[in-house]
């Protein structure tokens, strides 16, 4: 007679999964359903656009400020020798080497600023080989904003003795070309709102004069 073995009520076949094991999902599957995910989009481009909108006006404001400073910043007046008319020039060798010069100058003063220029004086220095022979000073005046004004100055030097370079002066006289130095300087103030800014314009010229026929051979001018 065959015997049948019976398992206790609490024991089951180990080959069959239990109900708890069958109910739990496999470990490689996500226990959360797919519809529980939320997608968060960060508006990075919008932030960059807002930043660009803020930077753009700032750069434009800085550019306009720099442009205004460049245009309104005080600049020295431009000085040039418009005309030099020689009336008389002579060189005396006895009893001492001396020079006599009589000339009329017309100086052109240009104000490049956006404010009026009040100049107190206009000085013209005449020299020979770096040594000053004399100076003529003209009165002051006013040059309107971004305008041009002409100033007349009469130069008169009577018997100015030349001691240091007397030999060179006699040699230049024999060649018929005596180089004289002319330095024109304009000093004044530029009124910028409530400020008074000092400005100065200066030009140097070398004028070659022929004392024999009382003419100007040539002249070279350059601003300083």
UniProtKB/TrEMBL annotation:
Keyword Endoplasmic reticulum among UniProt keywords: no
Membrane topology, as annotated: Single-pass membrane protein
Q: Which Gene3D superfamilies match?
A: 2.60.40.1820
Q: Which residues form the Late embryogenesis abundant protein LEA-2 subgroup domain?
A: 106-200
Subcellular location field: Membrane
Q: Where is this region: Disordered?
A: 1-23
Keywords (alphabetical) are: Membrane, Transmembrane, Transmembrane helix
Q: Which InterPro entries match?
A: LEA_2, NDR1-like
Q: Name one GO cellular component term.
A: membrane
Q: Which sequence ranges are marked TM in the entry?
A: 54-73
> Which protein, by its recorded name, is this?
Late embryogenesis abundant protein LEA-2 subgroup domain-containing protein
Biological source species: Urochloa decumbens
């Amino acid at each position: 007679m065959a015997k049948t073995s019976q398992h206790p009520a609490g024991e089951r076949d180990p080959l069959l999964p239990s109900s708890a094991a069958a109910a739990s999902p496999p470990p490689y599957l996500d226990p959360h359903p797919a519809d529980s995910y939320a997608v968060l989009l960060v508006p990075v481009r919008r932030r960059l656009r807002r930043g660009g909108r803020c930077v753009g006006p700032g750069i434009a404001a800085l550019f306009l400020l720099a442009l205004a400073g460049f245009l309104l910043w005080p600049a020295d007046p431009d000085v040039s020798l418009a005309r030099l008319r020689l009336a008389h020039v002579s060189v005396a060798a006895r009893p001492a080497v001396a020079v006599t010069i009589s000339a009329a100058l017309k100086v052109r003063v240009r104000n490049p600023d956006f404010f009026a220029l009040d100049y107190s004086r206009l000085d013209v220095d005449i020299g020979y080989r770096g040594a000053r022979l004399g100076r003529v000073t003209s009165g002051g005046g006013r040059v309107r904003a971004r305008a041009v004004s002409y100033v007349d100055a009469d130069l008169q030097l009577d018997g100015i003795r030349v001691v240091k370079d007397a030999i060179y002066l006699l040699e230049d006289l024999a060649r018929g070309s005596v180089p004289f130095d002319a330095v024109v300087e304009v000093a004044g103030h530029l009124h910028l709102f409530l400020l008074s800014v000092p400005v100065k314009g200066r030009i140097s010229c070398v004028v070659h004069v022929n004392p024999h026929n009382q003419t100007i051979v040539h002249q070279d001018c350059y601003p300083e």
